[in-house]
Amino acid sequence: MKDAAILVRALRDPASTTALDSGGWTALLTLARAELLLGTLARRLEGIDLPQPIQAALIDARLNAEYQRRSALWEADCARRALTEFDGGIVLMKGTAYVAAGLKAGEGRHIGDLDIMVAHKAIAGAERLLLTQGGWEWVKEDAYDDAYYRDHMHELPPMIHKERDRMIDVHHTILPMTARPQPDAAAMLDDAIDIGNGLSIFAPEDMVCHCAAHLIADGDLTGGLRNLWDMHCLLSEFSAQDTQFWAQLAARSRHHQLQPAVQRAARLSARLYGTSIPQSWAKAHWHDSLFIRRILARDGWGRGSAPLTRLLFYIRSHWLRMPPLMLARHLWTKWRKA
Amino acid sequence: MSGTASPIQHYRAEKAGELIIQPLDIMTLIYHRRSGITHIVADPVPQILEIMKQDIVTAGDVMQRLTDIFDLENRPDSGAVISERLKELSLLGLVEMIDAP
Amino acid sequence: MRHEFHVRVGPAAFRIGSDWRAPIDQMRALYADYPAADFTDFTVRLEAARFLRRFLRPSAAINGDYRLPDAAPLPLGQGLLAAEMGMNLQMALGWRRQLILHASAVEREGRALIMTGASGSGKSTLSAMLGQKNWRFMGDEFALIDMVSGDAVPYPRLISLKNEAIAAMQKHAPDARFGPLMQGTPKGDIRHMVPPAPAIVRMQARAKPALLLFPRFGYEPAVREIDAGEVFMRLTQASTNYVALGEAGFEALTRFVQNIPARAIDYQSGEQAEALVNQLWDQLA
């Protein structure tokens, strides 16, 4: 098994898995777990007649996804209660938002930390309430990292809950402040949709913009298969609900300086998962294939493969986030401490 | 905003359907479905949750209902004890602090 | 991967991949009587940290479906231990089909004795020792509790003997098969022992839990009662998947605590422990 193509095929066409032998199933579930897509896959395969040992493993995966869903919603509720006195909007992000809104992208999804966004000027207030009312504390006290986060990042340093052992990331925008695209965080907050209890989620177009930014601009493409699955689900669901969706998405992504990122994510999602996207969006770019190769770089033992493409993207990811001189300074501090 | 709109804090218990309450010798287990968390509690926590029903109540109301049913002796610090328990329960998410009706 | 081995232990099937041959050969020999597995639930990988390290100073990083990010690699000579640790970790973090208790278990007449306690309590050695007497060994590390029936499901992995227990078991079970003696591991000397034949042949045969003991080694022989609330709390702490199992786990554990008598026992020698176990079994089980 050379890459993760069998995982993509199984997500795209669940019935195709009935042709797998036991070795194929072992590879498929190992890959899915390594890409944090096992719960998603297990939900996709629900209702298909499969051999008993496979069914048993899939039931485990669905149970686990249900546990993650429950915990994520509970963490959001705990944050809500800690922030009762907070004056301003609180937006749930990523997986927690998908399950809170009952979106297809949330079905079976792996959810780790709680990510929320508040206005930049209000972030100190949110921080204070979480620390004093909610029982969260800093993961580590480190002056350098702290200053680094505050000056350059799009979120506070992570906090962890003293008893529940769960992390919260508080953002004030969706990309580091040093990144070249500068999305309009204030507009995202203004247009967020209230889901009751004082919590909100991004409007559909902003949710897609965030997902694309997360995939293309903010990472080294680790977890790309899962992010693109999110993208596929969001695009399919939103475009089916609103005929104006694609036009609105184009306008909104331009406003956030994220049009190239959103278009690439849509193209990659179409190429991998068969998302239907407008003709005008579908024109391939020369390095889409490189992205695809990087995203599929994992073998049937769950090992990341193709180290050269990996390194390339790691450097690219740092380059995107930080101007070069700042990057050098950052690495130097890391080397000295190591 | 809690605690600012009214000098007296009001509370409402978690919906009964969200809680599985299981006595186990001198302790009581409470499984909270929404959070998936198991709480091991002592008296009078189960009694407090029971008599709160789904009503919006103050610590004083809770005290009154407890004395009505359980024939408690009303010591001067009893009110403070109930207040403390209610605050703890709200931190656990078993009771919600709400604005005065 | 270059070297590969599949094995079934109780309800779980494992795939072990290794950059080296030696650990796989050792596993093949020790697991010779265990059933093979086609589809596997979990993957464990023993990997050279870097390509060249495979030859230079070989040490095995323990990877797989679930891994601990800060787990130090083990010297290649302890590759078997690395594989066993990897398998334990997959069960602890990934298994959802039964409630997992960090406990040992033995069976007699279809009924199970479960022993749990911190490491050093002697629960593992006790189960191995009773397995040589008129009990069937069910497992020395995890007791799996079926959430519907309440049955104990066997998980008879290789018995992991530490330090003094190695010589003691070699005396008790001269005919048993042992793995290589691994010295200077993070836990001292370790040697694996193949469980007695009935443990392997009957690894699908479940048993009704009948008695729960909390043994403690190194104290004057004594038996103490424990409140049900404390038993419940201790078992939640001894379970690696209780929280993830949610309501089903709560119902199963509550029923277990309400139905199974529990005692704490102190002992200073295997003979004392055996006498206490038999006495309590006759009284309570």
List keywords for this structure.
heterotrimer; B: 101 residues; alpha+beta; Outer Surface Protein A, domain 3; three-stranded antiparallel β-sheet; two-stranded antiparallel sheet; 35% helix; disordered N terminus; C: 285 residues; Rossmann fold; 2 domains; eight-stranded mixed β-sheet; five-stranded mixed β-sheet; 8 helices; 32% helix; globular
Topology:
The complex is a heterotrimer of chains A (338), B (101) and C (285).
Chain A: H1 5-12, H2 22-34, H3 38-44, H4 52-82, E1 90-92, H5 94-100, E2 114-117, H6 123-134, E3 136-138, H7 143-152, E4 159-161, E5 167-171, H8 185-190, E6 193-194, E7 199-201, H9 204-217, H10 224-241, H11 245-255, H12 259-273, H13 288-295, H14 307-321, H15 324-337
Parallel strand pairs in A: 1-7, 2-5
Antiparallel strand pairs in A: 1-2, 3-4, 4-5, 6-7
Helix pairs in contact in A: 3-4, 4-5, 4-6, 9-10, 9-11, 9-12, 10-12, 11-12
Chain B: E1 10-13, E2 19-24, E3 27-32, E4 37-41, H1 45-52, H2 59-70, H3 78-92, E5 95-98
Helix pairs in contact in B: 2-3
Chain C: E1 3-9, E2 12-18, H1 22-30, E3 42-48, E4 59-64, E5 74-75, H2 79-94, E6 99-108, E7 111-116, H3 123-132, E8 136-139, E9 142-145, E10 152-153, E11 159-162, H4 164-172, E12 182-185, E13 188-193, H5 197-201, E14 208-217, E15 222-225, H6 228-237, H7 242-259, E16 262-267, H8 270-284
Parallel strand pairs in C: 2-3, 7-14, 14-16
Antiparallel strand pairs in C: 1-2, 3-4, 4-5, 6-7, 6-8, 6-9, 9-10, 11-13, 12-13, 15-16
Helix pairs in contact in C: 6-7
